[in-house]
Amino acid sequence: MYGKNAHSTYQTVQITTTDRGRLLLMMYEGAIKFLKQSKAGLEEKDIAKFCRFLSKGQAIIAELMNTLDFEKGGTIARDLDRLYDFMLFYLSEANLYRDGERITKVIGLIDTIYSAYREIIEGAKGDGQMSGAEEAARVGEALKRVQISL
Length: 150
Known about the structure:
Structural class: mainly alpha
Helix content: over 70%
CATH class: Mainly Alpha
Number of domains: 1
CATH architecture: Up-down Bundle
CATH superfamily: Flagellar protein FliS
Shape: globular
Number of helices: 6
């Protein structure tokens, strides 16, 4: 009776009532999920699936890139901007060369950033509010881990 319309309504309500931190985590989770599905499509030789989910993953990364606040974020925002740009470039190469290893590398990078933000967001809920300096330090540590893994 309700079908897809009820599911769509539920998702809309969930997104519009979620705090910014949780929404950020949902975007990272979505990017990881879509990129894993894209890689699965490539392994299954289903090029339509590969392209569809790769495009969705790229769209999320582009949105993350577009929402960076360079005034408030400072160095971290600039580092994330470069990292997101690298990811988009690497995914374009993955598409061009049909290379699942490039997708795996990007998934690993996103997962590292996601883990750091999850720690920050869940830590802020449990401990009260985290200072901007503490948050910057944690994200900075995650970015260092990402740069080391490149």
